[in-house]
Write a structure and sequence with these properties.
Helices cover 45% and strands 18% of the residues. By secondary structure, the protein is of the alpha+beta class. It has 3 domains: 3-36, no CATH class; 42-215, Cytochrome-c3 Hydrogenase, chain B, CATH 1.10.645; 222-273, no CATH class. A 5-stranded antiparallel beta sheet has the order 7-6-8-9-10, with no helix packed on it. A 3-stranded antiparallel beta sheet has the order 1-2-3, with no helix packed on it. A two-stranded antiparallel ribbon has the order 4-5. Strand 8 (240-245) and strand 9 form a beta hairpin. The radius of gyration is 21 Å and the shape is globular. The chain starts with a strand and ends in a 9-residue tail after the last strand.
Length: 274
């Protein structure tokens, strides 16, 4: 007889969710659904508020990626005011946004994904977590904590706090980058780069053990979307939105100003085009 299996809560994800599996009479999965179970309601909170309050409100949508919401809402305010912010302000926004990319990717890779890669997907659930990684591979665990710490520290040095900063405002940023802050960031970069290179070297070796899983697990055709700069390279702050077809290598480029779409060829070997 048909059977429904519910997996709740989902763990090692950034948010709250559950999965329901629907099996047919033969026990074969007929349908699988991923449910996002949280409701934020920030759209309603913003109704009737002055537009310049949006960045501070939006930064509180998420404790993991507050800078993304902060920057996006500030850029929307820039558009409302029809202003082009000074280049130094744009660069400072980029700096904070890149710091968040570092800490968020460190969280995703080291905290959420590395337990499977290091301990094996069949390892006991109570051991397959960051604490298990710290016991079996202490150096890698420390690297993950350090990398995320660096990203969070840069956010704090710029915005005054690590979570829900309000430094990015309509028209630019609220304070300039001091010489002391600049030197503090620059001094930390060499060790962080070394850490990242060490991790990438390990990951390239480790991935060879999972070629079969990569070939079969959740492998299906899809589109890919991301920001690119005029040269087609990867962009995180401002640029052209590109949607790439997985098979034909064709893409739609959506320019932010003016809003236009044109089809161009894209080579999948270029990471900036996927």
């Amino acid at each position: 007889m048909p059977q429904h299996i519910t997996i709740e809560p989902m763990t090692r994800i950034e948010g709250h969710a559950k999965i329901t599996l629907h099996l047919d009479d033969n026990g074969t999965v007929e349908e699988a659904r991923f449910h996002v179970t949280q409701v934020r309601g920030f759209e309603k909170l913003c109704e009737g508020r002055p537009f310049y309050e949006m960045p501070s409100l939006m930064a509180r949508i998420c404790g993991i990626c507050p800078v993304s919401h902060l920057v996006a809402s500030a850029k929307a305010c820039d558009a409302i005011m029809a202003v082009h912010i000074p280049a130094p302000a744009a660069n400072l926004r980029r700096l904070m946004n890149l710091a968040q990319v570092i800490q968020s990717h460190a969280l995703s890779f080291f905290y959420l994904s590395s337990p499977d890669l290091l301990l094996g997907m069949d390892a006991a659930p109570e051991q397959r977590n960051l604490f298990g990684v710290a016991q079996a591979h202490p150096t890698l665990a420390r690297d993950g904590i350090r990398l995320r710490q660096f990203g969070q520290q840069v956010i704090e040095w710029l915005g005054g706090k690590r979570i829900h900063p309000a430094w990015v405002v309509p028209g630019g940023v609220s304070e300039p980058l001091s010489a002391a802050q600049r030197e503090r960031i620059l001094a930390a970069i060499p060790d962080v780069v070394s850490l990242i290179q060490r991790t990438l070297a390990w990951f390239k070796q480790q991935i060879e053990e999972y070629r079969e899983e990569i070939r079969t697990f959740a492998n299906f055709p899809s589109y890919f979307m991301g920001l690119v700069n005029p040269e087609g390279g990867l962009e995180h702050y401002d640029g052209t939105l590109r949607v790439v077809d997985a098979h034909e290598g064709r893409s739609l480029r959506i320019n932010s100003t003016p809003c236009a779409i044109r089809t161009t060829s894209a080579r999948r070997s270029n990471p900036g085009r996927t």
